[in-house]
Amino acid sequence: MNAEQRLLDAAALTVYRLNGQFLALGDELASPAGISVAWWQVMAAVEHQPQPVAGIARAIGITRQSVQRVADILVDKGLCEYRPNPAHKRAKLVAISEQGEAAIRRIDPQHEVLARRLAAALGPADFAATVDTLTRLAAALDSISSETPVD
């Protein structure tokens, strides 16, 4: 295994660990509001602007089918609603409802506490640099995902 392969493995294992940590923290934050972290992810994706299911899936990196299942539950529970999509007749937009906004507001105080604690642990500059690096990593993976492997 060469150095690049070791770095790729280390990056992947670290991201898998981070994913587990974020999901556990998300569940802790979301459960008092009566929602799951999966519901929160979808609601957060449409909090500021309605999106089609496919757009939500791209934004949060999960399958369209998974987002569709969660969106249907959120609509059934009154936390989101479907709206007509002027750009596509069949692909409705998912929008957060007033009830969904209220659920997110219930999460905000503890979310703020966690964000402050993490910023204090890392330092504001390192926290921002970490987010920038993770964003660049995701963009790099997007850019190479469609490339054909070279022999």
Automatic annotation (TrEMBL):
Designated name of the protein: DNA-binding MarR family transcriptional regulator
One family name in Pfam for this protein: MarR_2
InterPro entries: HTH_MarR-typ (IPR000835), MarR/SlyA-like (IPR039422), WH-like_DNA-bd_sf (IPR036388), WH_DNA-bd_sf (IPR036390)
Signal peptide range in chain numbering: none
Organism classification: Bacteria, Bacillati, Actinomycetota, Actinomycetes, Mycobacteriales
UniProt xrefs under PANTHER family: MARR FAMILY REGULATORY PROTEIN, TRANSCRIPTIONAL REGULATOR, MARR FAMILY
SMART domains assigned to the protein according to its UniProt record, in alphabetical order: HTH_MARR
Keyword Transcription regulation among UniProt keywords: no
Record's keyword terms, sorted: DNA-binding
Domain HTH marR-type: 4-139
A Gene Ontology molecular function term of the record: DNA binding
UniProt-listed SUPFAM superfamilies: Winged helix' DNA-binding domain (SSF46785)
